[in-house]
Amino acid sequence: MLARCQLILGTPEKALTIVVAVSGGADSCSLLHLLRRQAPEAGLRLHVAHVDHGLRTDSGEDARFVEALATAYGLPFTQKVLPPGLLLGARGGVEAAARQARYAFLAEVALHVTPATQPPLIALAHHADDQAETLLLHLVRGSGLAGLEGMRWLTERWASELTPDTLVADDRHVAFIRPLLNVRRAAILQYLQDNQLAWREDSTNAQTTYARNRLRHMVIPELAAINPGLVATLNRTAELLQGEADRLQALDRAALIQLLADPDWSLAQLTHHCAQSLSYRQTYAPTRLVLDRAGFVALPNAAQRGVLRAVIGLLAPALTDLGLLQLDQVVAQIQATTHAGGPYSLLGDLAWSVAAQQRIGATAQRPARLSLHQISALPFAPEHPYLDAAWQANPGSLPLTPPCRLTLQTGWQLRCTLLSRADLPVDWLQRVQPWEVYLDAKQVGQMLLTTPQAGMRFAPLGMQGHHKLLGDFFTDHKVPVTLRLGWPVTVDAASGELIWVCGYQPAHSVRITAATTSVLHLQWRQDE
After folding, report:
1. Which range has highest mean pLDDT (84-88, 243-247, 257-261)?
2. What does each C-alpha distance from 511 to 148, 449, 459, 465, 505 come to in angstroms?
3. In what order do the strands lie in the sheet with 288-292?
4. Smallest Cα–Cα separation from 528: which of 413, 434, 415, 403?
5. Which of 364, 369, 311, 366 is nearest to 340 (CA)?
6. What phi and psi, each to the nearest 5 degrees, are found at residue 237?
7. Which of 22, 86, 285, 392 is spaced 20 to 30 A from 127 at the CA atom?
8. Which residues contact 178 (CB under 8 A, 6 or more apart)?
9. d(CA 374, CA 378)
10. Which pTM value belongs to this model?
11. Which residue has the higher pLDDT, 518 or 342?
12. Which residues pair with 80 in a beta bridge?
């Protein structure tokens, strides 16, 4: 009857804290008794947690029963009472809303009572009959493999995933353990009787208005008449499918690694973090993953769906509601999009794009690429100087006083040099180097490097001092909107006038003329 309880071990010297979810029903009462019996030897420190969902008029009696039980056992107790009617009419149904509220509360309790040196653990009383019901319920609802694998003995979630509406300062992994998952309900009831333990019966368990109850009381008995070992069979099936799901996930991640086409992330780095997916988020938080589009489209549809799931798992682990229909729609859209474009909505805060202009995407040597990315992130790494989110979030200006060198994290370096007119290269006018410029030093003043700001105006070379909005200038030169926020520009500290839109033209006022005696040379180069 101990089932997998023996796998939960601490030591008498270093106790292991476990939050036990206790509803007051037979299953959770037996689990609490088992863990309490094992606690001294196994080094367990138990904390009882209970949620009153406010769905029954007598639910308060359950809460009082659990509190009295915790007191009798000498265990700390925490409860949460939801306002009556809060869950009624919830999107996805009352049961789903109740489960979400319950898991969020349990996570909050576990984070609060668990030492920082230990991962928060929550014990749930799901048993073998629950597993059989879950598999059948997912089957009739049309679930894929992820649903048909049922519940696992151990599952881990980020605290922020469980409490999306709460600011979580301690975003550790919360582990849910199900020690009784291979125990039949009949054995649990026998254990309660043998140990003369009391529990409360939830009156709604007999109501067949809920899908799970209809399966329990009507469908499973009929199926058991065909196969008396039905529950054991379904539990074996769930374990087999869990193994298959793990195998396919490994294959999907291997396919993702083979398709990776973005130099931002090395294959070795992604391989390491795919293999250790539970810890990658602490050290590796990509905002995009770029794939070889042709290679992706050449995969079978099932593999394409698997790669998309693997990417989403890395970019946004909290997003778990991407269904088969949505996946197939995205796959079809990617297959049909042979030209550059995007971003197109994927799910939540994620989007996908196909490589755009040559300067930021496809080249003859590098075919079109597919980017799956945060909607707020650049789809592709710019192949030119770019001021990142830190610059954009704090749009301060950096003084450029020659001689100086400024190196960006991307490896691009801005070199600023003061020359005499005599040192000006004889072919400077013929050079076609968009990331290099020669300016009249005396007309520049104190120059600052910064990012574009709303309302900035520019008088580019050739317009005789006439101004236009910087946004219009970008539009004329087909600068993608996604790149504009971080495009490097230089301004005059005193006047705020734009001096040089890097990669394009200088201002008319700082052009080299016959009267120029000293020259300011600015050049962006990739760090060697």
Report:
1. 243-247
2. 69, 18, 11, 11, 10
3. 288-292, 369-374, 350-354, 341-347
4. 413
5. 369
6. -60, -45
7. 86
8. 4, 123, 124, 125, 126, 151, 152, 153, 154
9. 8
10. 0.74
11. 518
12. 51
Q: What is the mean pLDDT of the chain?
A: 84
Cα 374 from Cα 348, distance rounded (Å): 9
∠192-198-203 over CA atoms, to 5°?
A: 105
Distance between CA atoms of 488 and 365, rounded to whole angstroms? Answer: 27
What is the token pair recorded at 49? 């947690």
Contact present, 18 and 122 (Cβ < 8 Å) = yes
**Residue 14 CB coordination number (10 Å):** 10
Contact call for residues 407 and 466 (beta carbons, < 8 A): no
Query: Using CA atoms, how far apart are residues 257 and 247, in angstroms rounded to an integer?
Result: 16
Kindly report the CA angle at 371 between 143 and 388, in degrees rounded to 5?
A: 125
Angstrom distance (rounded) from CA 421 to CA 436: 17
Output the six-digit token pair for 296. Answer: 């992706």
Residue 131 has pLDDT above 70, yes or no: yes
Q: Is 399 helix (H, G, I), strand (E, B) or coil?
A: strand
Query: Going by DSSP bridges, is the β-strand pair 436-440/498-501 parallel, antiparallel, or unpaired?
Result: unpaired
DSSP class of 180: T
| pLDDT tier at 286, thresholds 50, 70, 90 | confident
pLDDT tens-digit readout, 353-377: 987 544 444 444 556 889 999 887 8
Across 447-467, average pLDDT? 88
Rounded to whole angstroms, the Cα distance separating 195 from 214 reads 31
* C-alpha radius of gyration, the chain, whole number: 31
Residue for token pair 């996805």: 92
Q: What torsion, rounded to 10 degrees, do the Cα atoms 421, 424, 426, 431 define?
A: -140
State the Cα–Cα distance between residues 176 and 121, nearest whole angstrom: 6
Phi-psi region of 200 (alpha: psi -120 to 50; beta: other; left: phi over 0): beta
Helix, strand, coil % in the chain, rounded to nearest 5: 40, 20, 40
Yes or no: say if 81 and 53 are a contact pair by the CB < 8 Å rule.
no
Kindly list the distances between the CA atom of residue 288 and the CA atoms of 158, 210, 488, in Å, as whole numbers in the listed order. 20, 41, 22
Beta carbons within 8 Å of 289's beta carbon, 6+ residues apart: 256, 260, 262, 265, 311, 314, 315, 371, 372, 373
Answer left, alpha or beta for residue 89, where phi above 0 means left and psi between -120 and 50 means alpha. Answer: left
User: In angstroms, rounded to a whole number, what is the distance separating the alpha carbons of residues 34 and 394?
Assistant: 56
For residue range 389-444, list pLDDT tens digits in order.
Answer: 777 777 777 888 888 888 887 788 899 999 998 888 888 877 778 899 999 989 98
Sign of the torsion formed by the C-alpha atoms of 313, 319, 323 and 325: negative
Rounded Cα distance between 510 and 490, Å, is 12
Q: What is the spatial distance between Cα 214 and Cα 367, in angstroms, rounded to a whole number?
A: 54
Handedness of CA 390, 284, 346, 373 (dihedral sign): positive
